[in-house]
Amino acid sequence: MQPNQIQLAQRAKVFKALGHPSRLLMVEALGAGEKCVCELRELVGSDISTVSKHLSVLKEAGIVTDSRRGTNIYYSLRMQCVSSFLSCVRRFFDQQVEEQFLYLEDLRKQAKS
Fold this sequence. Notes:
This protein is an alpha+beta fold and 113 residues long. 67% of the residues lie in helices and 12% in strands. It folds into 2 domains: 1-79, Winged helix-like DNA-binding domain superfamily/Winged helix DNA-binding domain (Arc Repressor Mutant, subunit A, Orthogonal Bundle); 80-113. Strands 1-3-2 form a 3-stranded antiparallel sheet. Strand 2 and strand 3 form a beta hairpin. The termini are far apart.
């Protein structure tokens, strides 16, 4: 079954939402559990309005959800599978770095020979 334009647009929205380093950092942190906006602000190191805008983008894409408790707003992952995806991407790049290191090490050994 071929995806229709609406499904493709929904997927694109998710990837666009993940397209900023601060949002990726927040999503990875939320993979470990619920966080209040104040914790995410400290993590990202931006002002509260910037963090709120990033969280709005993630919420609009369906990646996170929020709940209010007293004066605090807590965020958690709604789209749990995004953690697995980001772990996969991280492992891929870690492997690339390892392969490049081994290649350079091999070149260094050959140059000494």
